[in-house]
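User: What would this chain look like folded?
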Amino acid sequence: MLDSVLKSIVSDKVLHAKWLNTLSYMENAGAKKISASEHKENVNLIVLKHAAEEHRHAYYLKKQIAKVDEALCKTYTNAELLSPNYTKYYLHALDIAVCRYLKTEFNLSGYELKFAAYLFVTYAIEVRADELYPVYQTILDETRSKVNVKSIILEEEGHLEEMINQLAEFDSNWEDHAAKIVQIEQKLFDNWVEALQEELSIAV
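Assistant: Here's the prediction, encoded as structure tokens.
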């Protein structure tokens, strides 16, 4: 379903601009979530690197819009995003669900809960990015679009490896917990893609 949705989006200039803007919004939201999870004093290099790179992805995707039509999508207002309600709910809902899960499983609170949520939420998002961006890039290549996300794909792969290393330090049984977090993310992602599909059918 994702493949057909993305093909429809890339074939339409306005939808494609909104799609890039939507991805930019989500990368920016992710960067802000990472910064919000930081300890006031004990901030490691990887956390700073992730926040900086997610902000850069948001900026890069926003700049790519000009390759489609530089007059489009200047803001993150609902009118300039695809499925704005689902887009804005997705990461927030994932964060809340993960926090609930971690409270139950590890009895965490305060900064410890924030940091553990950062690890697992980021892991789930990186797994998703490793699937979504290559599918999108393949369609861009097929349609000979000027838009390109290859640099993001490389960085997201690096992020995933870093998150796995940090999760292994956090808990020896991290893979079982991560699998449950990925299931939560999958439901939210499926709802988002369905919302995109519905919006496209209305647009057509």
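The mean pLDDT is 92. If you want, I can go into more detail on any region.
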